[in-house]
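Lab notebook, design round three. We kept the backbone fixed and only want residue identities now. Task for the bench partner: fill in a sequence for the structure below.
Input structure tokens:
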């Protein structure tokens, strides 16, 4: 089981939202807490939801350079777990994209370089000499970060791994104490069969 990031070194957000596992599957409501390590793209996300009447939890993380995803019944009984190089890269892409929710990470993350692109986007590259991930960030006319795009994020399909474009769009910037961050997000896979939006959420608190 992933070890949550120590509170004294973290930035924490709470979310409510919904997720679906395939384009033809229904949306499932969930609540989640996510912690980010200061000065890093590391994170630990724990979500709770119900599969019918059965309470389930999902832990997704990128810590110490390794990604992991684990599903449990009632937070105790493991029913699925994923690790390995593909999960490392997928988690690194997510951790890099989500620095928009912890402003201390923008421009100050270990193993991340930033480059202004000709089209006005900013490209961030994470490289710890084991895993490499690239995300392009888009901004609105007011200079607010509004999108994150990865041209290649791994997705496990049975026993194979394929890489597809992946993006997140954020909106509704709001103040949470002294921090102003986007309060809504929508995440999409750009598959050969078409766009598949699989996650959307609202931020309810930031600490």
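Proposed sequence:
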């Amino acid at each position: 089981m992933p070890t949550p990031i120590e509170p004294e070194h973290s930035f924490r957000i709470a979310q409510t939202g919904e997720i679906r596992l395939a384009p033809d599957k229904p949306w499932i409501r969930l609540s989640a807490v996510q912690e980010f390590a200061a000065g890093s793209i590391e994170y630990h996300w724990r979500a709770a939801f119900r599969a019918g009447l059965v309470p389930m939890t999902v832990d997704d993380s990128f810590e110490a350079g390794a990604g992991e995803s684990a599903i449990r019944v009632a937070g105790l009984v493991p029913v699925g777990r994923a690790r390995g190089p593909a999960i490392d890269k997928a988690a690194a892409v997510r951790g890099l994209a989500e620095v928009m929710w912890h402003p201390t990470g923008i421009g100050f993350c270990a193993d991340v370089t930033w480059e202004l692109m000709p089209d006005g986007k900013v490209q961030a590259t994470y490289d710890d000499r084991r895993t490499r991930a690239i995300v392009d960030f888009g901004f609105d006319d007011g200079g607010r970060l509004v999108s994150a795009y990865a041209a290649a994020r791994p997705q496990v399909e049975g026993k194979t791994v394929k890489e597809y474009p992946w993006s997140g769009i954020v909106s509704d910037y709001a103040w949470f104490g002294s921090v102003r961050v986007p309060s809504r997000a929508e995440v999409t896979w750009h598959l050969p069969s078409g766009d598949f939006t699989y996650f959307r959420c609202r931020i309810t608190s930031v600490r």
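Keep this in mind before ordering anything: The chain has a mean pLDDT of 91.
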